[in-house]
Every structure is written in structure tokens, then in C-alpha cells.
Amino acid sequence: MRDLVQIVYVSRSTFTPMPPERGIEPSVARILAQSRINNARRGLVGALYFGDGCFFQCLEGPVAAVDGLCAALLRDPRHTDLRVLSRRAIERTSFSAWSMKYVPLDAPMQSLLRQLGLARFDPYRFDEAAVARVLDMLRNAGGLADSGQPAAPRWTARRAVWAAGLLAVALVAVAAAWMRRA
């Protein structure tokens, strides 16, 4: 079994976000698109929430891959004030179907913020219990793809091999039927 780790970090965007009622912030959409490609290649999964100019992100995967990405994030000019809120060893990933899940949790997040006595999304003020509650919301909420539609689960290597095997069987069956006609 490989060593897996989960980190939760927060940061502030260096871009001026557009009003949330206009949809997914274009800068966040670009970050999501690139993260989904890079994370799949690195064997990482996770979830992202963006609100009031702040990122709340959970990353999970092999220790070396997570640590490498964290080092790169510290140099990323799209955000500043990066702070790791939690880091822990895990047995399995929580977001295994998502290379990067994005959840616009407006109503649930607003409810949580009211419970925490916060007027706006400020994850720098989250304690350990608040971090755990946000992670639960991210795990249980439907995620959105860049198009705003629910994202399809990503293919695992096992599913890809299984699908390739089915395709091979189907091709052999078609070839055999064609040979019988000839």
C-alpha cells in the first residue's frame, strides 16, 4: 500500500473576482481545467471551494506528489497567503472520482458561515471542526464540471482495462461473424 496524505490549505486570490451571481469565476475555471489535467497525471484527487476571494482546497494522494504540488503552489502567482490548515495520513482518498472537484456551495456554505458567526467566507478563521464540516460538505455535494454540468467520474486504470477487454471481445465477435458470411 502506498503512503497517502491529505492536506487542506487556504489562500487568497491575486485576481479580482467577478460577482458570484455571474457563474464560475473565469480565473477559477482556468485553474480547475489545468488542475484536472495535472492532478490526473500525478495521481492526485481533491476538491476546491472559492468564495470572497479565498480558496479552500483539499488535496489527496501519494506523499511525494502532494508535497511536490504544494511546493509549486507556493510559487503560483494566482494566489498568496497560502496556509496549510491540516495535513494527515489517510488510508484511502475521499474524492477518488474527481481529479479536482469544484462545488459552488452557496446555500450550505452560507448556513455554515452563519453558524460560525462569520459574515463572509474567511477560511483563515476556520478551526479544526469548521475544516471538517467544510470537507464533509464538499464530499457530499454534487460537483460541477467547467461547463456547469455534473462532472463524470474519471476513469480508473481498472475500468479502462475492463473497457478495452470488452472492446476486444466485441471486435473478435464481429470478425468471426464476418468470416462466417464470407
Brief write-up:
The chain is built from 5 helices and 5 strands. It is α+β, with helices and mostly antiparallel strands.
Distinctive features:
5-stranded mixed β-sheet, 43% helix, alpha+beta, 5 helices, 182 residues
Structure write-up:
This protein has 182 residues and is α+β, with helices and mostly antiparallel strands. The protein has 5 helices and 5 strands. Strands 4-1-3-2-5 form a 5-stranded mixed sheet, with helices on both faces. β2 (45-51) and β3 form a beta hairpin. α3 (106-116) packs antiparallel against α4. It starts with a strand and ends with a helix.
Major beta-sheet overview: 5 strands, mixed
Mean pLDDT, as a whole number?
78
Helix content: 40-55%
User: End-to-end span in angstroms?
Assistant: 52 Å
Principal-axis shape equals globular
Number of strands: 5
Q: Give helix and strand order, one letter per element, not per position.
A: EHEEHEEHHH
Break the fold down into its secondary structure elements and pairings.
Layout: E1 4-13, H1 26-42, E2 45-51, E3 54-62, H2 63-75, E4 79-90, E5 101-102, H3 106-116, H4 128-140, H5 157-181
Parallel strand pairs: 2-5
Antiparallel strand pairs: 1-3, 1-4, 2-3
